[in-house]
Specification:
Low-confidence stretches: none
Protein name: Caffeine synthase 2
Pfam families: Methyltransf_7 (PF03492)
Order of helices and strands: EHHHEHH
Distance between the termini: 21 Å
Number of domains: 2
Number of helices: 5
Helix content: 40-55%
Shape: extended
InterPro entries: MeTrfase_7, SAM-dependent_MTases_sf
Radius of gyration: 17 Å
Largest sheet: 2 strands, parallel
GO molecular function: methyltransferase activity
């Protein structure tokens, strides 16, 4: 499953217009690879500073564009986010 996240004010329509091309590209692989690459796309509006998904529901998160916004975060909010990230890393290492 692939979850795309952005603020609720963003327009996901343009992104979803590219999905047929994305799925068409998946058809070129053999049947076994196709089963491994079954992809379900969903848009999840909300801020990445708040909980977006239930506990234990996400295995990997990649946020390349969010780095730009982290530079604009106040120092106190950044410290809280850093503590939260360290706690998440410790939890993942235990698992």
């Amino acid at each position: 499953m692939l979850f795309l996240n952005d603020l609720p004010s963003s327009d996901f329509n343009t992104l979803f217009q590219y999905l047929p091309t994305f799925y068409e590209g998946l058809k070129g692989v053999n049947e076994e690879e196709q089963l491994m690459m079954q992809t379900y796309v969903a848009a999840v509006p909300g801020s990445f500073f708040e909980r977006l998904f239930p506990d234990n529901s996400i295995h990997l998160i990649h946020a390349s564009y969010s780095v730009r916004w982290l530079a604009q975060v106040g120092l106190n909010q950044w410290r809280g986010l850093t503590r939260h990230m360290k706690l998440q890393i410790r939890t993942l290492k235990k698992d």
